[in-house]
Amino acid sequence: MTAAPNLLNAPEYTVSELSSALKRTVEDAYGHVRVRGEISGFRGPHSSGHCYFSLKDESAKIEAVVWKFVHVRMRFKPQEGLEVIATGKLTTYPGSSKYQIVIEALEPAGVGALMALMEERKKKLAAEGLFEAARKRLLPYLPEVIGVVTSPTGAVIRDILHRLEDRFPRRVLVWPVKVQGDGSAEQVAAAIRGFNALPESGRIPRPDLLIVARGGGSLEDLWSFNEEIVVRAAADSMIPLISAVGHETDITLIDFVADKRAPTPTAAAEMAVPVRSELFSEIASLARRTFVCWHRHQEGRRNELRAAARALPDATEVLAIPRQRLDAAASALPRSLRTNTHVHFRQFAAASARLTLRVLRGQVAQADHRLTVCGERLTLSARALLYRRRDRHTALAARLKTSKLANLEARRQAISRARERTERLADRARRALLTSVQRLDARVGHAGQLLIALSYRSVLARGFALVRDEAGHPLHAADSIGPSARLEIEFADGRVAATADADRPAAKSTPPAAPKQPAREKPAAPKRITKPVDQGSLF
Fold this sequence. Notes:
A hairpin with a 4-residue loop joins strand 2 and strand 3 (61-66). Helix 5 packs parallel to helix 9 and helix 6 (184-197) runs parallel beside helix 7 (228-236). A five-stranded mixed beta barrel has the order 1-2-3-5-4. It has helices at residues 3-9, 15-30, 68-73, 110-127, 155-167, 184-197, 228-236, 253-257, 265-272, 276-311, 315-354, 357-454, 456-461, 513-516, and strands spanning 32-40, 51-56, 61-66, 83-93, 98-108, 145-150, 171-176, 209-214, 241-245, 260-261, 466-468, 486-491, 494-499. The longest helix has 98 residues, at 357-454. Among the domains are: 15-108, CATH 2.40.50.140; 119-134 and 143-272, Succinyl-CoA synthetase domains (Rossmann fold); 277-303; 457-538, no CATH class. It has 14 helices and 13 strands.
């Protein structure tokens, strides 16, 4: 009994003041922390752009939140089941009385997480068709300009230039970029797109071939070439591209989308150009072979010409007989012309003798008679055709009228049958609706009887009472009632107010408040329960 005064003297806080004090305590004690755990409950960004999830390990879990502006700038996006190291500020959320971490940076935890993220990204890009062999282009045999995307200070660019100088010197354009760290992926993607954006006839020539190169390193060092922005930039490149990232055992996603993968940057330079001395030797060998083939062909044609010349006869012998025939035809030509002229003259004289004036008049009269006969026949034919067309149209009109009457009668019968069927269906629907309403009414009556049977008011009607606290909540035990607590007791016929007294036991007599309120009796619902306990038929 001595602890109560001490508790009453303790300072009093509101819920908001206590939450604010706890928030300041947590933030001052911890501030920024690094937490390693597995992402759980991540379902993507909220409609507001913020991300809400949990970080958990084998025995604990902490809530986490990533604000929208931080999520946009993150290099590694949160994913369900990924083990990460989160850097952020530890704070509390008063709305649900829990502590949480506001994440400002997120990175995968270990090589295993990076490999899992890489495999998932690989499956996603492969499903889009970026790794298909049909997308890959052939490398130019001897490019005039070669574009190199790499660090300008590393040994990679020196190895590429040295190998190109040894094999076949070409013009090289270097686009300097960062090959690891923050912003490196964006620089590599911008370099690839920048080379593709150069005009073909501009001041800076557009490369015929691109080489994206970097030396060897760990998976974290090479991660920039696994970023989606770099892979998509390489896939969109219209210039053939060679990937030379890391050593032969290093695999990055840009290797799958590039037109050719080189195990090392030096091997990429060897793929880009052939060996000039070997080309000179091959050209000289081809020139010798071409000359030998041409000389052999010329000798064969010369021998064929000599053999054909020996087989040909003398020109005088070939032209002797045609010359004779020509002389004979020339001697017979004047006599034939005179004979042909006499024959045509006789034919003309005979034709002119037949063309007299009387003959011409007879032919005109015959033509006039034929024209008159044809006109009369044409008139008769037109009249007969008109009559036949009129008779045909009359018959068709009669048939059309008969068909319309028959169709009208058929439509009337169909409408009558449809009306009868509609009336039958309406009658059936009316009976079905009446039956359904009766069934639903019976179900509602059964449910009402069941509700009355299961209501606690039936228990109150048997002499029991329901005790509530001042807030109206039911009380189930005497230990939950404090001294001088205000109570409300509900009987079957009304409610009375009471005050708990801890110094003396509860009175066994009937509470005096019951007879004071006879006007609040509710005989409607409780007093209708007169059925026995056995109500199995209701279930």
